Amino acid sequence: MVDISVVMITKNAERKLEQCLVSLRAFDEVVIYDNGSTDNTLDIAKAFGNVKVFEGEFFGFGKTKAHAATLATHDWIFSLDADEVVSAELAEELSNKLLDEKVCYQVRRDNYYRGKHIKCCGWYPEYIVRLYHRRQTNFSDAPVHETVQTKGLKVEKLHAPIEHYSFDSVADFLVKIQSYSEIYAKDMQGKKHVSIVAGLGRGIFAFIKSYFFRKGIFCGFEGFTIAFFHGLGTTVKYLKLYEKNHPR
């Protein structure tokens, strides 16, 4: 896989980074663009011979990932998060794949919570474009929920998955809600207006959708927790937006 660069952005990503990088030993280049880690992220990254570490500013997820891709040697970019693990099957599939510059490749992401593969709450199946040719496209400028732009290009699904270990505990949900809601509120300040009641209503609907419509009710503690934080995260981001739109 000499023609594919793995690219990821990190900040305080020590929790799963070593497991992630071990799964990437078949790639000759892994680019890490770090945004001010204060834990052992950089030490872990520098222990791997195929990893190149860069440090710089965070511009929002979309712009930062697009910038990180410019630091790679190869034009084919495989975008990965530091809490994701490439399966051996996917590494093998990529090593044998004839890639087409006019195609963006989707990967199935298998999401785990507390070590369990979650197949409810909209977490499965989840396909995300992660492999693309940087001369053809790149990430959108969205500060959160960024995506690779696919207009004018074909999209093809790869067969093997990546494993996503984003949450091990309730605390992990709280950390992510705090981070993502703050970015969202800052970006939408003055551009979008929502009332307190509307924000609460959207949060309640997000819980109902995840827990009932997307069958979280059948997934025990994990299903309830995921649905609960879907609802809470939605409410918090709108309350923060309301707060920023109505300063004291």
Molecular structure report:
- By secondary structure, the chain is α/β, with parallel strands linked by helices.
- It folds into two domains: 4-167, Spore Coat Polysaccharide Biosynthesis Protein SpsA, Chain A (Alpha-Beta Complex); 170-245, no CATH class.
- Helix content is 38%, strand content 24%.
- The chain contains seven helices and nine strands, in the order βαβαβαββαββββααα.
- The chain has helices spanning 14-22, 41-46, 61-69, 88-95, 170-188, 196-213, 220-245; strands at residues 4-10, 29-34, 51-55, 76-79, 84-86, 103-113, 116-117, 127-133, 154-167.
- Strands 1, 2, 3, 4, 5, 6, 7, 8 and 9 form a nine-stranded mixed sheet that branches.
- Strand 1, helix 1 (14-22) and strand 2 form a beta-alpha-beta unit.
- It is globular, with a radius of gyration of 19 Å.
- It starts with a strand and ends with a helix.
- The mean pLDDT is 97.
Mean pLDDT: 97
CATH class of the largest domain: Alpha Beta
Order of H and E elements: EHEHEHEEHEEEEHHH
Give the number of domains: 2
The CATH superfamily of the largest domain appears as Spore Coat Polysaccharide Biosynthesis Protein SpsA, Chain A
Gyration radius over CA:
19 Å
- Helical fraction equals 25-40%
For the sheet with most strands, the description reads: 9 strands, mixed
End-to-end C-alpha gap: 55 Å
Query: Strand percentage, roughly?
Result: 15-25%
